[in-house]
Amino acid sequence: MNYNNICVFDFETGGRDPNTCEILQIGACIIDKWNLEIIDEFNCLCKPEDMDAIEEGALRVNKIKKEDLEKAVDVKIVWGQFVSWVNKYNKSKGALGTFKAPIPAGYNIIGYDLPIVKRYCEKYGPWDKKRNDQKLFNQLHKLDLMDHMWFWTENNDDIKSLKLTSVCEWMGFSKAELENAHDALQDVKNTAKILVRLMRMSRTLTAGNENHNPRLQMKNSFGNCGK
Amino acid sequence: MENMLDIYSIDMECQKTWNLISSGMTKGVFQLESPLGRSWAKKVKPRSLEELAALIALIRPGCLKAMSGDPPKSMAQRYVDRKFGEEDLEYFHPSLETILGSTYGVLVYQEQAMQMAQVLAGFDLQEADVLRKAIGKKKADIMAKVKKSFLTGASKEGVVTKEEAEEIFSWIQESQRYSFNKSHAVSYAKNAYWSAYCKTHYPHQFFCSYLVGSAWKQDPHEEVQELVNDSKIIGIDVLPPDFRDVKKTFYLKDDSIFFGMSDIKQVGSSAVDKISVKIVEVEAIIEKKVAAWSWADYLIFFSKNISSTVNKALMSSGSLDYFKVPRNQMLYEVELWNKLTVKEMEWVKGQNSGEGLFPKVKSWGSFLESLIACQPVKKEGGGCSNSKRSQILLDIIKTTKNPPHKLNDSPAWISWAEEKFLGAALTCSKVEGCSDSVKSNTTCKEFIDGKEGFMVFAVEINRSKQIMTKRGTKMAFLSISDSSCCIDSVVCFTQELEDYQGILHEGNTILLQAEKDKKRGGLIVKKAWQI
At residue B25, what are phi and psi to the nearest 5 degrees? Predict the structure, then answer.
């Protein structure tokens, strides 16, 4: 049983390469592990260190204007605030460790957002020198919803692609929820909604209910399938 | 000193004290403070020193394990059943009535074995003492010798037959596993009564001193939690530390118990000493007593005097709640304040204490105002040494005005922070943050005070322990709490556990439909819902 909170997060960036791009917006929310409700949100535009490194194509995708970035708060300060905010939900009783830190979750985070987290943690902290890794989130678990959705849709032709908007559409999200795609906080909220649906579905299937229906269990649910 | 309690002259027949012991509210009562002591105090319901001594002797491990009779029962259970007429009291031999009468025919004390040897086998005091030693030291070789003399003596005395003497001696022999010295039990009982008397008549002082003593317990965290819960049941408020009082450990004020500052985790005794020195210094600078400080005064003049760890601990624990600023806002602003350079901080302090450019401004009242004043470079009348610093301050101002997240305190966060820094949630419960908690119709305190019938609780699960039943199925024992208090005897039987085990976990908040366990006095889980 894992008691950690879950932090769904998303970065809007100024480029495609997670090893070099600048963060332009941080969106995140915390999901209570038990009731699966969003208990806190974080949303901030950041002024990047190098404005010239921002790709026009990136700005077209995330619809962030350069003049808004000029007025935004320096990324170093925002990163510090993001770290403090995530740490608020770290359940370590004493000094902060990663074992009880929130579990990072998001859409395509393993390939994109987590390498950025690692890079910014190395630059601005918190950095785990011993493991050469970020020290902000749980180091053991990571929930990449794109992988989870592959699992749930791998034999389904109804879904167009595994892009976040396609998945949201397929899952019947409202028009308003789909309109603001590529706004960090809206993407985070949509991703959180997918995650919560999957968790609720799993809980419903595996938990007993008032009518004492037999629970679906890994060891007995599908027979041995002969394998 | 005229209010000093003379413990030797208290009323030993105080009904309120006996009621407290019999109700099992014996946390902190000598020898009866463990869950075992509390549950057996409820079962035995002692009303005299004699019965209290028997209770203390009966709940020792040997006595609880020693089973006898058909069906087999522990000595303690036999005592309870006979006391309340659940089992007939018959003496094996009429001569035993005077010896075992006070303990309902149960051989509890070594002294009773000695008396039996005197009456039945004609032992003199010296021989009886050898028997006591054999029982006490559990020496089989001495016991074998004593048995011989017992049987010889019994046949000479002729009070009981040879077979009866052998049977009675077998009890004595068996009793060496558990029996207790009566004089010891009575002195324990007296101590137990004294502490129960203090708890009944001086509950504030009782809890305060036990909370002070929690630091020396094996698990101080658990001890604090149990004492805080117990004090809630009695109706005594235990509150977070108050920065204005600068007390090191638990103290009493206005009929409430306050945590001391060194009772906060990560705040040591030397940190409290430093705090008290620095408060005096800052009071002199801003010409304001600590009780009159605003949050901006604390932030600008005081916060930098102590480490950020101590600052965080003070804010998170609620020690600075008198500023009436959300704890999360304080944590947020202190972090921003620490981004200023020492010179910028000094500039702000100088302006604020009336020595600088704005002597009329005694206080800006808010952190934001002081930042706005400091933001221009020096030649423009501000406190920044260059434009780069000025830009950083501008960012800090922006982020103070528009924080990237909410700065309010949710009940879930407050209760978590208080548990982390103080060992117990004092000002609220995680449950208060759950909207569905309104669907409950009973609080834990209402149940403890006697409510029965259809009960739905909105609670947090503090502890959950699963065990295997004799049939090989699982059941669970839970401890639940809301802001009123905690109930630590909640049973969840197999079927309900199967239905709801996905949510019956420590830390979770649930709606719980339960009914009173008429036999054991706790609750039995019927239904549960996630909230």
Answer: -80, 55
Q: How far is CA B513 from the centre of its chain?
A: 26
| Domains in chain A: ranges and CATH | 6-206 (3.30.420.10)
For the domain made up of B430-530, the CATH class stated in words is mainly beta
Cβ–Cβ below 8 Å for B503 and A34: yes
Asked if ipTM goes beyond 0.85, one says yes
CA distance, residue B373 to nearest chain A CA (Å): 19
Question: Is the pLDDT assigned to residue B261 strictly greater than 50?
Answer: yes
Contact B499 A209 (CB under 8 A): yes
Three-state DSSP string of B237-273? CEECCCCCCCCCCCEEECCEEECCHHHCCCCCHHHHH
pLDDT band at B147 (very low <50, low <70, confident <90, very high): confident
Domain with CATH 2.40.50.140 in chain B: 430-530
Q: What does the DSSP 8-state code read for residue A154?
A: T
Task: Name B271's Cβ contacts closer than 8 Å, sequence gap at least 6.
Answer: B261, B262, B306, B307, B310
Which tens digits make up the pLDDT trace of A156-189?
A: 888 889 999 999 999 999 988 888 877 889 999 9
Return the residue of A nearest to B530 by Cα. A35
Residue B286: which region, alpha, beta or left (left: phi > 0; alpha: psi -120 to 50)? Answer: alpha
Coil/strand/helix, residue B495: helix
Residues of B engaging A, defined by a Cβ cutoff of 8 Å: 265, 328, 331-332, 335, 339, 391-392, 395-396, 398-399, 403-406, 410, 412-413, 416, 420, 434, 495, 498-503, 505-509, 527, 530-531
Mean pLDDT computed over every residue of chain A: 89
Burial B203-224, CB ≥16 within 10 A → b, else e: beebbbebbbebeeeeebeebb
Distances (CA, A) of A43 to A40, A76, A89, B138: 10, 15, 16, 72
Sign for the pseudo-dihedral over CA of B11, B16, B22, B27: negative
SS3 B368: helix
Q: Which residue on chain B is closest to A93 by alpha carbon?
A: B420
What's the mean pLDDT when you consider all of chain B?
Answer: 88
User: pLDDT tens digits, residue range B498-509?
Assistant: 888 888 888 889
For residue B87, pLDDT over 70 is answered with yes
**Residues on chain A touching B413 (C-beta within 8 angstroms):** 88
Q: Is the dihedral of CA B310, B508, B23, B50 positive or negative?
A: negative
pLDDT of the residue at B292: 92
Shortest Cα–Cα distance, B523 to chain A (Å): 19
- CA distances (Å), B215 to each of B172, B224, B249, B262, B462, in order? 42, 9, 10, 11, 21
Is the pLDDT assigned to residue A49 strictly greater than 70?
Answer: yes
Q: In what order do the strands lie in the sheet with B256-258?
A: B238-239, B256-258, B251-253
Nearest to B245 by CA among B314, B197, B338: B314
- CA B355 to chain CA mean position, Å: 51
Which pLDDT value is given to residue A181?
A: 77
* pLDDT of A204 above 70: yes
Q: Which residues of B touch A23 (CB under 8 A)?
A: none
Q: How far is A159 from chain B (nearest CA, A)?
A: 31
Report pLDDT digits (tens) over B478-495: 999 998 888 988 999 998
Provide mean pLDDT across the span B68-77.
78
Whether B522 shows a pLDDT value over 70: the answer reads yes
